[in-house]
Amino acid sequence: MKLRYSPTSPFVRKVLVVAMETGLDGRIERVPTTVVPVQPNEDLSHQNPLMKLPTLLTDDGQVLFDSRVICEYLDSLHSGPKMFPPSGTARWTALAQQALADGILDAGVLNRYETAVRPQERQWQEWSAGQMRKIRNGLAALDGKADEGALGGPLNIGQIAVGCALGYLDFRYAGEGWRERHPNLAKWYGEFSQRKSMQATVPPAA
Fold first, then answer.
1. What pLDDT, in 10s, does the model give residues 163-173?
2. CATH of the domain at 174
3. Helix residue ranges per DSSP H, the chain
4. What whole-number distance in Å separates Cα of residue 181 and Cα of residue 155?
5. According to the model, what pLDDT value does residue 36 have?
6. 122 and 94 both lie in a single domain
7. CA 76 to CA 127: how far, in whole Å?
8. Among candidate residues 48, 75, 102, the one where a domain is terminated
9. Which of 25, 101, 104, 199 has its CA 20 to 30 A from that of 189?
10. Would you say residue 177 lies in a domain?
11. Helix/strand/coil for 125
12. What is the DSSP string of 166-189?
């Protein structure tokens, strides 16, 4: 398999963590790929018309994209404990946590494009504030889940997505100070971030 990736993408990180946790990392060739919103990657577009990362080329030649699809595909290739619970409350809880974490990431990435890529004179402050509101609302919800123990139990895609979202905030929003406002979530992440898969995928220094 070939994975089009960037080490700074939190969505790529989610895929890599799943690959490592399921023992599949050695089967994946990493292909460094640069994606910039205002500079179309025509080479990538031949595989992924959306020109987004991650993009996976399977051994049988199928192209998969969106981290959720790739992660579930990888989860189908191994015989160990599944990252996607097969049914019932555990499945819907994990998928809901993944959706919340991915939403935080979407808002974080969009806001970074607005504040770090778009020329300052063209930036829309109200729009940026709206994205930060989504991030902060999401963190508050996750803090409640951590307090209830809902982020515990066997490793699953929800926990992995949440871990990667928090790692991205540390990487791109170091001044946000989310730990002070969300101590339950900070405690959970302090333990989760020590997993070998998380340590091995920390993005390079900003």
1. 999 999 999 99
2. 1.20.1050.10
3. 10-21, 42-45, 67-75, 88-112, 125-148, 157-172, 178-181, 183-192, 196-200
4. 25
5. 84
6. yes
7. 39
8. 75
9. 25
10. yes
11. helix
12. HHHHHHH-GGG-HHHH-HHHHHHH
